[in-house]
Amino acid sequence: MLELLWLLLPVAAASGWIMAKRSGHNARRPVSREFSARYFQGLNFLLNEQPDKAIEVFLGMVEIDRDTAETHLALGNLFRRRGEVDRAIRIHQNLIARPTLSKEQRSAALLELGQDYMRAGWLDRAESLFEELLEGNVHRLPALRHLLDIYQQEKEWDKAIEVARRLDSEGGQAMKPVIAQFHCELAERALKQGDEAQAGQLIKRALGFDRRCVRASILQGRMAMRAGNGKAALKSFREVADQDIEFLPEVLEPMHQCHEQLNTTTEFADYLQTVIEHYDGVSPMLMLTELLLESRGETVATEFLTEQVRKRPSVRGLGRLIDLDLAAASGKSKDDLLILRALVTQLLQGKPVYRCIHCGFDGKSLHWQCPTCKEWNTVKPIHGVEGE
User: Rounded to the nearest 10 degrees, what angle do helices 331-348 and 315-328 cross at?
Assistant: First the structure.
């Protein structure tokens, strides 16, 4: 009941505005007692959890006076917020059908009905209404935002790009990083279809909109690897560290493969040593440990990793250190290390690897668009003792 009272505030406010407006026009016509009585009758139905009866009362008010449009807009919004989309649609559809509505009132009702349709999952109907608003040059920015949402849900990336560019120019929103992501979506689609030439062009466009687009550089590097061009791939992968060093772990393994192909693993070790000095994540440290193990032996690798784990405690680092010690252990020492290794595995089991900095969503896979809040470029590797 308390929740309903709070939700009714917009309706009450709208009604108060209408009644005040009428009071100010006393010279032309008196305040309608019938309006007041029917309004409170409808409100009483709502408070007694009889929404359908309330709707009938409020819809009847539209036939009495077009000034009640604001009340109906607020009432429909109320029902949509409560998840009662069918009732919201009924109110807004009835309102739009009133011939006495002004252009402004009708456009406001169209905007609300479009949101009702979106909430109901009728995206094609919502799209038509928002396009109608754009054609009428009313409510342009909210209509564009809703259209962008629709095109993202339907994965119509070309249309999403067009709308996002209009929002960038008309609404003053910084949409270029998002537009870059849309081009990456199209590039990945082209790659699945085997059209690498088209994918390459789309990746270049993505970087044209956002030079700091990590995803585009990763895609570019992977394409160069498949083409056997290790140098070009390394160039793209190294750009990732300059664009956003938090995504460096995503490219360390392919960088390793490229350096092995080019016989330049010593150069890779030097690069990792430089990275470790200004990046506190564990992945470069573990990668350098493997290179030292291959080139200089177990003792050097163990000493390096021991020093690094002491400086920057990490569960993953500790687990790798235990693995190295296990290779030379025996008897009770080996049994103790096995117990520790099992504990480390249990600590890391099921732990999320990525987190959205906008809404806090956790997951084990990298999403360029957060599955929960739908924001782009907000999901990043988790740092800390149990993370990166």
Answer: 160
